[in-house]
Amino acid sequence: MVQPAAAKTRESIGTERRQPTVAWRSALSADALPLPRLVPTPPPTGQAEARLLRLVDRIKKDDVLAFEELYRLTRDDVARTLFHLVGHRPDLEDMIQDTYLRLLKAVPSFRGESQFRTFLYRVCANVALMNLRWWRRRREDPTADLPDGIDFGEDPERAAQAAQASRLVHRALEKLTAKKRIVFVYHELCGMGPEEIAQAVGVSYNTVRSRLHHARLEFTEALRALTRAEVES
Amino acid sequence: MTGHDVQLWAYAAKELELGDHRYVEAHLEDCPECTEQLASVQVAKEALELARDARPRVAWAHVDERIGAMVEKRLAAQARRPMFFRLGVVGLGFAAAAAAVLTLAFPRQELMPLPATEQPAPPSSWARVDRAQGLTRVGGTSSEILDGTELRGGDVLRTSSVGKAYVHLPDGSHLRVGGASQLALTRSEADDVALTLERGSLAVRASHQARKAFVVHSGGLSVNVIGTVFSVSNDAEQVEVSVTEGRVRVELPTGESTFVEPGQRLRFDSKTQRSKRLKLSPANERELAEITAVADATTSVEQRTVVAAVGGTPSAPPMLTAQGTPRSLPRLTAVEARARQVSPPVVEQPKEQPKTEVIVEGPAEVWPTLGGGEIVRGVPAPREPVSQPAQVEVPPVSQPTEWAEAPKPSVEEWAPLPVPVAQAPAPAAAAPVTPSGVEGRATTSVARLTDESGPSKVMAYDLEMIFLQRAEDSIVKGSNCDRFLLGLEDIALDAERNARSEQARVLRARCFDTQMRPRQAMNEYRKYLEAYPRGRFSAEAHQALGE
Hints:
The complex is a heterodimer. Chain A is mainly α.
């Protein structure tokens, strides 16, 4: 007979190994990966979402102005998301354009089964995936010889720290595979929950959990190695 | 790795339930390996926290322009079109994109004037409002749309219950939007028009220009047009299609397709899904006669002033024809439209030169207007003027519509001597340089070509002022002002030392300044001071030169 997860957890307090219990509970409970407390981008209000949906309806009727309005409303979010997903690249503007081109093609197929924001993130994820793979194939460092194109805020001290942290984070993210990277960034940098990520990436909930688990391990290890290398040098 | 990493990360983020949290806490006291791992996790989380605030700096002006162009191309190509059409338009889109890339890569080549025969006028995607009463744009400001306002695909117009408006489309067709109507200009290109009448009434005089489609959607019906005068009205229960000239093909919501002939009115009942053929009502005839008169008047005026002067597409608004592709231009603001409307287009015609007057071939109460709302003075004349029998043999210059009778007077205006009309130089041949896509060239060509005629001179003056204003706007906004440089030089070199050439010289200097080209900027300022030592901008020039 299978005991409840909470009872098992209480029983196992003080023991050295408890992996079987964790694995069993993780597979079935949605609480295994709760939403992170830090949410950098506020979730869309019902009003904002309704406004986007109205625009989508107009776009389906070939309304150019509606698409332009949608673009104005979402472009900052798209730019920030793509930046987090792929890091500082010279072709970020091309990616933004590609995202909206794909969005324009994909909007007629949007049936309102998810939030429009999630739908938009799915398009971003696809664009980012293509871009990450493209750079991997070229075996070049996309961050080499980049102009200063990142805004870290107005506080100079914090901006300096943020610039160093951002550089380290993106170098560590380069060590992850593209799929793991997207899940990790959506969860840790964009503040999305695993269910929403599953919709945005088009995989199951458990796949998201699995990728996030491995991505966290690899990211921590990569960052530790980078930090150690910097200290030694 | 300890195997506890997920819990450590969640523990560091305070995501765990109380029991799990205490378990990890207790475990950490006994496990130095996990403690070290936790430190790494915390460093990683702090780094992520800092990196989260990073924002990329994007040149939005550039991206906006690219995406705007992309959207227009895409939406023009898609929706309700056979696959071979879609493929064709996508191919054109790629060709346009390739041309744009070449243009960006070799900007100097664009500035070279090409022979007139090799430069088709760029198709305009702008429609113009005329004689608007109680017309507003849905989704925009609540203020009324002024005459001369330019519209484009995607705009949705609404008239008040007592309002009405005329819209001149880029393909040379004319619309009359009745009261209490809502009309969407789904596509409004020179070669493709799609309109959606949500409610109210719409009368159309469609041109015979070759194009992909001209379709009006209303209440589930699709009215496909060739070259026709017809109207569509839509109340909540029934849709009516009335035809006075040509014929239209109506696709019913039931899937049937039928033709409506001249003098017929097709009524489709939305409830019973049945259609019925009737005779035209007097109201239909009146409405259609009105749009015909306005179309004739407007076409006539446009051909005489625009085609004769510039050689571009007759149906295109004069400003757009002269200044290149509409994509490269910012949209007219309401203030600008108002300014154009009140700008002084007053033309003083010498009494001994009556030929320069524009004849309005329509009812006496109809007064044509141009894009900017300039009223062109004219005298009502009979439809078949007795004084012009010889001009019947004139080959058409460039007819946008089959009913246009405009080329006759345009020749009259350009050939003041009583030579045989058939031998009169055509306006296009008379023009040594047809305006290219470069705004400056186009504008100054107009200025030179129209030096002799009063109305055209006024129009050229108006165009130059608009050009200067746009150049200044571009410099102030920090967008690429390269495309204005050549035109500014032309204006600056104008023989008459006037305010425009003075302003043009300074704008060139400012443009170079914004482009971080100080040598060129200082050179321009020096030229300015040589020409205008006590000019309006002399203080600015002295300051820039460090004097």
